[in-house]
Write a structure and sequence with these properties.
Strand content: 5-15%
Radius of gyration: 16 Å
Distance between the termini: 48 Å
Number of domains: 1
Shape: globular
Number of helices: 4
Largest sheet: 2 strands, antiparallel
Helix content: 40-55%
Strand order of the largest sheet: 1-2
Length: 112
């Protein structure tokens, strides 16, 4: 994968982190099976989320180490995707996600 300067990102609720449009192959491509199998991409997003929020032990996870070794040019390793302004944006996304889930739970609690 090649870094796209125009890549967009969104919050992936199940992993709790951001993913950018240039980080993984299209889900209809044969290459998707590599990262889609067992939701590998979510593991990568979650590890990066932990690193972004200061959990240094996440950087020692074997999967992350394998990416660092075997795919050092992966767009997901770009510093601006886990340091700087993105930290505040991730925290804001988590707060919004928490509020949305709490509202959904409150609304569904009224159902018989």
């Amino acid at each position: 994968m090649v870094v796209d300067p125009n890549a967009t990102y969104s919050y992936e609720h199940l992993s709790g982190g951001f993913w950018w449009s240039d980080e993984f192959p299209p889900d209809d491509s044969p290459d998707w099976e590599t990262v889609g199998h067992d939701y590998l991409y979510r593991s990568l997003i979650r590890i990066r989320r932990c690193i972004t929020l200061g959990d240094d032990s996440a950087a020692t996870v074997p999967l992350w180490q394998q990416v660092l070794t075997d795919s050092p040019n992966w767009p997901g390793l770009c510093p601006d995707r886990h340091t700087g302004r993105i930290v505040k944006r991730l925290l804001a996304a988590e707060r919004l996600s928490d509020r949305c889930l709490a509202q959904l739970e409150a609304e569904s609690a009224g159902d018989p």
